[in-house]
Amino acid sequence: MHTGTTPDAPAPRAARWRAAVRRLGARRWLAAVQLLAAVRPLPRPHRRPAPVRPSRPEQLRALVAVLDEAVAAQTPADEAVAACGEPGPVSRGTARDCGQQSIAVHRLHARLQDLGTTDPDLVVAQAHAVRLLAYDLWMLRASMNLAFTVRPVDRTEAARLRLNGLGRPADDLRRLRDSLRAELRDT
After folding, report:
1. What is the model's pLDDT at position 99?
2. Which DSSP category does 159 fall into?
3. What are the C-alpha distances in Å from 108 to residues 99, 136, 171?
4. How does pLDDT run across 34-67, given as a tens digit for each residue?
5. pLDDT in tens, 69-108
6. 26-39 and 13-24 are packed helices; what angle lies between their axes, rounded to 10 degrees?
7. 126 vs 116: CA distance, rounded Å
8. Angle (deg, nearest 10), helices 56-84 and 120-147
9. How many CB atoms lie within 10 A of CB 36?
10. Do the beta carbons of residue 156 and residue 71 sit within 8 Å?
11. Choice between 137 and 151, residue whose per-residue pLDDT is larger
12. CA 181 to chain centre
């Protein structure tokens, strides 16, 4: 008996199998297992069929739908960033608008990442769009940091006054969406 075990505890499964093989002998045990398998086939593990991947046009349609929403969300985000760069004190409404737009762009960024495209060309386009939306998120945060700093300095104030919107990456996202939409029309 092992230390820490109770005498009434059943033996582990492997120990019971080894004891049964020893009692019957290896050849008799093998013959018994083969006889049982012939009479009653062993159950096969249930395998689920592989999930069906969406076709390329379906993936393209899903990608374009998210990009349409992202491009639509860029206009208010662009306005919020530009409002942070206006001369004079920045209003609390601008902070609220920047926060709301940041949440909206973040949600679109997450949806775009979770799309699950498998076509190599669409994976590249999806990754590019994710990077462009990440820039929009960064731009919203940076503009809020510049506009609502605790200790304004001349250098941060000059950088804040140069803010005028999302810039070229917003145009790049729009062009990417337009090219994918044109490809969708051609299919």
Report:
1. 92
2. H
3. 14, 11, 17
4. 777 666 665 667 777 777 788 889 999 999 999 9
5. 999 999 999 999 999 888 888 888 999 999 999 999 999 9
6. 110
7. 9
8. 10
9. 11
10. no
11. 137
12. 23
pLDDT confidence of 176, banded at 50, 70, 90?
A: very high
Residue 75 tokens read as: 């206009």
Look-up: residue for tokens 């090219």? 179
Q: Residue 183 contacts by C-beta under 8 Å, 6 or more apart in sequence?
A: 60
Q: How far apart are CA 55 and CA 63, in angstroms?
A: 12
Query: In this structure, which amino acid lies at residue 25?
Result: G
| Cα separation, 151 vs 144, whole angstroms | 14
Residue ranges of alpha helices (H) inside the chain are 13-24, 26-39, 56-84, 92-113, 120-147, 154-161, 168-186
- CA–centroid distance for 99 within its chain: 22
Two structure tokens written together for 166 = 């999302």
